[in-house]
Amino acid sequence: MARLRLVPGTPDGVLAALAGVLDGSGTPFAPVPEDSVGAARVKEAAAPDQPLEDGCAVVLTTSGSSGEPKGVLLSREALIASATATHDRLGGPGQWLLPMKPYFVGGLQILTRSLVAGTTPVMLGDSLTESAAAMTGVRRYTAMVPTQLARYLETDLDALRSFDAIIIGGASTSEPLKVRAAEAGVTAIPAYGMTETGSGCVYAGVPLDGTSIELGDDQRILIKGSTLFSGYRLNPELTAEVLNDGWFRTQDRGELVDGRLRVIGRVDDVVISGGVNVTLTTVQARLLEHPQVKDAVVLGVPDAEWGSRVVAFVVGKPGLDEVRDWVSETLPRTWAPRDVVRLEALPMLASGKVDRQRLLEGVR
Asked: Residues in domain AMP-binding enzyme C-terminal (predicted)?
């Protein structure tokens, strides 16, 4: 049985290892971040000294933004299926710019798409504008997280406009940010997916070719298709819990609006506070509509009195009273945050997701 190879999580290191597994000449690998903490997490989840499950080409470690990181097994077929379906949706193969870390699925799949398309990826340099200018492809694509899009809308607008499509993933894209991008003439396509689905598998609410979605219990999103992972590394129990008859049972809730998937939030984004069910993502979306709020996350914090205390972490000026009044204008007063923590910026993981664990550690 094959063993897993650890490779440097640099663009060149991952690109070379990917080329090998895609053409059949290489061996399965796990990309390792440069930082010591990230490297330790990957080595623990990937377990390179243990025999590797059949059919695996790459092991990616989830970000662990809301729990312990897991080793996700992705096959060569799943990687290629994701890249091919993406190109089909966007209008054909093209050249890709890599503005994110290649040891997470979003960055790795930019490199996969480049290899499948037979184009040379361009690595992000000192500025987006300079890097975009170096691209020569007839069709030009990139992918980034919402935080990057928001920043580049202010600093590199012409560069954003030069892309035929920009896939936005890694975290939910707020409605105000979608509107800003559209009004600026930027073709930003919100994507839904995760490491287990081989990156985004639903673009602008519509599944890619080869992907099917259903809504199960409590509006939980179920996904089936050719881009799905094979299982979790050395964890058959968890694999059996989330994969059943080809369907992947996600931790997200959604609804279908005019035939398009709208992600409501995670299953655990509903907390009971003072006997009232509060949907944290709905409160968060309302806060992001405030003209003086640049970014926000709303979390439930264990509390002896309330069961869960709703806390808003806000990048902006509004204080507690203003936040509570703003939320209460459109939502029940009982949903309004009981605490507000104002920050210069939200702490982020290397994957582009908010570091929820770090936020919670500061208020418990």
From this structure: 284-353
* Contact criterion met (CB below 8 Å) for 80 and 87: no
Q: Do residues 139 and 92 touch, judged by C-beta distance below 8 A?
A: yes
Is there a domain that residue 268 lies in?
no
Let me know whether 140 and 283 are in one domain: no
Q: Do 213 and 295 belong together in one domain?
A: no
d(CA 250, CA 50): 27
Coil, strand or helix at 148: helix
DSSP string, 286-326: HHTTSTTEEEEEEEEEEETTTEEEEEEEEEES--HHHHHHH
How wide is the angle at C-alpha 105 spanned by C-alphas 16 and 283, nearest 5°? 160
Please name the amino acid found at residue 133. A
Question: 97 and 137 share a domain?
Answer: yes
Distance between CA 64 and CA 44 in Å, rounded? 13
Residue 66 has pLDDT above 60, yes or no: no
φ, ψ at 45 (rounded to 5°): -75, -35
**Does the residue 333 lie in any domain?**
yes
SS3 114: helix
How many angstroms from the chain centroid is the CA of residue 72? 14
Same domain membership, residue 318 and residue 236:
no
CA count, 13 A, side-chain hemisphere, 86: 37
Is the pLDDT at 67 greater than 60? The verdict is no
pTM of structure: 0.84
Lowest mean pLDDT among 10-14, 178-182, 267-271: 267-271
What is the rounded radius of gyration, in angstroms, for the C-alpha atoms of the chain? 21
- Nearest to 223, CA basis, from 260, 206, 248: 248
Is 76 part of any domain? yes
Q: Which amino acid is at 297?
A: V
Work out the pLDDT band at 64, boundaries 50, 70, 90: low
